[in-house]
Request: fold
Amino acid sequence: MYNENKHINLVWLKRDLRLKDNASIANALSDGKKVLFIYVFENLLLNDPHYSQRHFDFIKQSLVDLNKTLRNFDTQILVAQGEIISVLKTLQQHIRFTRLFSHQETGVNSTFDRDKALKRFCTNYDVEWIECINNGVFRGLRDRTQWRADWTDYMQQPLYQFTPTTGQHVSIDEIKAIQQLRWKEISLETPKSKSFQPGGVTAAHQYMRSFFEERYENYQSHISSPSLSRRACSRLSPYIAWGNLSIRQIWQQAQLEKQSGKNRFHLNAFTSRLRWQAHFIQKFEMECSMEFKSVNKGYHQLSKPVNQEYIDAWKTGTTGYPMVDAAMRCLIETGYVNFRMRALLVSFLTHHLWQPWQAAAHHLAQLFLDFEPGIHYPQLQMQAGETGINNLRIYNPVNNSLKHDPDGIFIKKWIPELRNLPTHHVHEPWKITAMERKFYKFTPGQEYPLPIIELLPARKRATDVLWNMKKNTLVKKESQRILTKHTLPNRDNFD
Ligand SMILES: Cc1cc2nc3c(=O)[nH]c(=O)nc-3n(C[C@H](O)[C@H](O)[C@H](O)COP(=O)(O)OP(=O)(O)OC[C@H]3O[C@@H](n4cnc5c(N)ncnc54)[C@H](O)[C@@H]3O)c2cc1C
Reply:
């Protein structure tokens, strides 16, 4: 066993894959004890329907990147696969630890259950589990009266630096010895892909730098365009979701940029969204049943008949509405679409196709490289019109296409079947005339599907039912409860 007499501090990395501004690491290092970093590919998550290979690849890339830095300190991350409790039990046979550091996770139900079991394990095995606040989301809040002030205060605190003293880590040789004894080596290699953003702190800083240097200048003007937003938005979401950057690192950098005289209009719009990040996660932290049921109990009585054909067409980008299909196909290929396209996808499924939002939850989670449970579920319900406190927004796919992709650039990129059509036809290809069909060798319903539903009656049904429900007594009572519990005193209309 590694030095019998000395206890080490164990840092369990999860969605905080960075060294700087990492409270768990800073706290673990602060008492001078040796520190060991561990990452566990938990079977629980490998089998969870929210996760897919793209997430695990991003994590692996992040671990490789961290290891490059850690090598300078003669250490690396011990990587294991299994359940956290069995991994810890095994580890205890080789190394003594009485303190386990991690961030507070606002996760899905399976990680919540795992945390409860881990708490019991820690009590039984005399391990102190120290969970640190993550990105300004607070445990145990009853309402949001103080939240904004506390969040701002948290963002203004100095960043934690990564300053270990020499020899403060368990060495690479010792880690390799434990790893070889107990766990088969897990390859951190990932396929080379140009479609997905690469994981890791290095890439995260590159994205942040290029955003503040130049890309931010079109932030607000291009935010709704499915193609232009890919450059004008920060694209920091996967780095935030997996913790390659803390929100505080980004927020403080944004304040410096503002002080240096850069355009405040765009930067303020951006920093508001950094606050929304925690605002949404805080909701989920305070009401995690949102993973399964609408937060407003009045909507539990809303029954939408499941139509698997509709759901399959939506999932595969073959609904016959080019904007919807292009957004879905782009997401499948790249793991990213902007906010408006996400909202449009959910709106089309839940309003026009009249399907339950739950039908979108796992599919989108697997596709979003930046999947973050605490943003995902509240946003799904908000876009589905089932909170009772937000304006009902039904995105018209044709109008959005005409307005936000007027030249059909996004559509033609993701729907090759429509590439040969003149631009005015890509928004509504079913309107092509008989003569043009021959000319462009395009027959609606053959190369590309006919619209799966008619927009106007579908919209009317959704509007009628949902507006009617807003008057329902339980919906109203619940709306009041949600306002009291989840919204801020000076409410933005997004929340
Ligand atoms: C149905 C639906 C599901 C979503 N699921 C996720 C998710 O799983 N993970 C995720 O990170 N975002 C999610 N979003 C929010 C938003 O679409 C993305 O955060 C944003 O598009 C990411 O791009 P960006 O990093 O370039 O954002 P920027 O516009 O550059 O914003 C910077 C950061 O602010 C935060 N942010 C931006 N917009 C929002 C928002 N509306 N709500 C909360 N935080 C926001 C994100 O952390 C983002 O990285 C979802 C939105 C919808 C409508």
In short: The longest helix spans residues 264-286. The radius of gyration is 24 Å. Residues 233-237, 240-241, 270, 273-274, 276-277, 280, 338-339, 342-343, 346, 368, 370-372, 375-376, 379-380, 383 surround flavin-adenine dinucleotide (CB under 6 Å).
